[in-house]
Specification:
- The protein has 362 residues and is an alpha/beta fold.
- Helices cover 41% and strands 18% of the residues.
Length: 362
């Protein structure tokens, strides 16, 4: 039985990863989920896993050296899958310090501790030990034209405190690979969407606001382009990297689904109208009239687009979900889990939302 340490497992991608891995491998694996449970971490996401003997939750901060050491001391960790991060660009602009601390220092603490427990001699490690660092395409900066793509060899050019902190954490992992021959891989993914995503991100925000007849804030002219990756495709790719990827390599994971932000919003509105019953009173709320352009985000990257050629060539992974199919699955999940949405959008989130989007309307 392999033991996986999943950091940030109560968050969006971590939750989907744990569900996928437990469904695929069953009792062949054990998962230790370590999460600080900040605003975006929600243990309700994993209620079904709590009854399993091969799943355990540990509330801890990855920046806490003693807590992380105790986890490695208690469990014979075979794999680290590192999701834990502050991940929202807007929050990083407002409070960059916490991003530097969690994303950089937290990653370093994990690397130091894993090496301490895994290394048997200089540059030699216990068999089967692997560290997977899950990162973002935002470390590459912004593409200047419609024909360029991000490759694993693309130079880093982060523009926000968030992407700079992730770039720094990537470089720490790469330094451990180069200096200590540490058994790790780095993956950089495009924008994820799907079930359990906290509604500060574009797609769940639009779904929630549209259902409630609230304005749909759009930065700038709404023509910023992102490559969208359905979260289940992403976690399948992460599993594939661990099982089939070449150690020490970096892999880009993209969705081949480039869309402008304004296009995404209009697709969601059309999908909601298509999926809601004719008798649902909320249908009257859903209109493009809700779209409200606000002052553009500082340092807003214009276009991201990943070329996942390497992971396709080396591992055979390709994205399976077209955006039109994925957005229907996503909308359906949120419609079926409105209590979840109501719970996570109360209290502190409402205060944050008002601060972020109440000014700059034009």
């Amino acid at each position: 039985m392999k033991t996986y340490l999943v950091t940030g497992g109560a968050g969006f991608i971590g939750t989907n990863y744990i569900h996928y891995m437990l469904a695929k491998y069953g009792e062949k694996i054990r998962i230790i989920n370590v999460d600080k449970l900040t605003y975006a971490g929600n243990l309700e996401n994993l209620k079904d896993a709590e009854r399993l003997d091969n799943y355990e939750f540990v509330k801890a901060d990855i920046c806490d050296k003693e807590a992380v050491d105790k986890i490695f001391q208690t469990y014979d960790i075979d794999r680290v899958v590192h999701f834990a991060a502050e991940s929202h660009v807007d929050r990083s602009i407002k409070d960059p310090e916490i991003f530097a601390k969690t994303n950089i220092l937290g990653t370093l603490v994990l690397l130091i501790t894993a090496r301490k427990y895994w290394e048997v001699s200089d540059g030699e490690y216990k068999e089967g030990k692997k560290f997977l660092h899950v990162s973002t395409d935002e470390v590459y900066g912004s593409l200047e034209n419609d024909t360029d793509f991000f490759y694993e060899t693309t130079p880093y050019a982060p523009h926000s405190p968030y992407s700079a902190s992730k770039a720094s954490s990537d470089m720490l992992v790469q330094a451990y690979i180069d200096t200590y021959r540490f058994p790790a891989n780095i993956t950089n993914c495009s924008n994820n969407y799907g079930p359990y995503q906290f509604p500060e991100k574009l797609i769940p925000l639009v779904i929630n606001n549209a259902l409630n007849g609230k304005k749909l804030p759009v930065y700038g002219d709404g023509k910023n382009i992102r490559d969208w990756l359905f979260v289940e495709d992403h976690v399948k790719g992460l599993d594939a990297v661990q099982e089939k990827g070449r150690l020490y390599e970096k892999y880009n994971i993209g969705g081949h689904n480039e869309k402008q932000n304004i296009e995404i919003i209009k697709i969601i509105l059309d999908t909601l109208l298509e999926m809601l019953p004719e008798t649902d009173a909320r249908r009257k709320n859903i209109s493009e009239k809700l779209i409200t352009y606000v002052e553009d985000r500082k340092g807003h990257d214009r276009r991201y687009a990943i070329a996942p050629d390497k992971i396709q060539r080396d591992i055979g992974w390709t994205p399976e979900t077209h955006f039109e199919e994925g957005i229907k699955k996503t909308v359906q999940w949120y419609l079926e889990n409105e209590d979840w949405m109501e719970n996570v959008t109360s209290g502190a989130y409402q205060k944050y939302y008002e601060e972020m989007y109440s000014t700059g309307r034009r």
